[in-house]
Design brief:
With 80 residues, the chain is mostly helical. Helix content is 76%, strand content 0%. It is elongated.
């Protein structure tokens, strides 16, 4: 009897995920257990990443310049 219950739970659990995936897709949503779909244009993704890398590089350079200016200013005003 208990083995039948365990087998029944295993079968129900095995069917629950595919049914949930089907139901989510039918409703127009992607199931959480599925990886996100890939876009067709792979080159556009690379261009976006390069642009973001360039923006981050500019931000880092600005931050380092600001920090260097602050350190220099602090050294000038510090008592000797």
């Amino acid at each position: 009897m208990s083995q039948g219950v365990i087998v029944g739970l295993a079968v129900a659990g095995g069917l629950a995920c595919p049914l949930h995936m089907w139901w989510s897709q039918w409703r127009g949503r992607q199931a959480a257990c599925c990886p996100p779909g890939r876009k067709a244009g792979g080159d556009s993704e690379i261009e976006v990443l390069r642009a973001r890398q360039q923006r981050l590089g500019v931000l880092i350079a600005d931050h380092e310049a600001t920090r260097a200016d602050a350190v220099t200013e602090a050294q000038k005003t510090a008592p000797s």
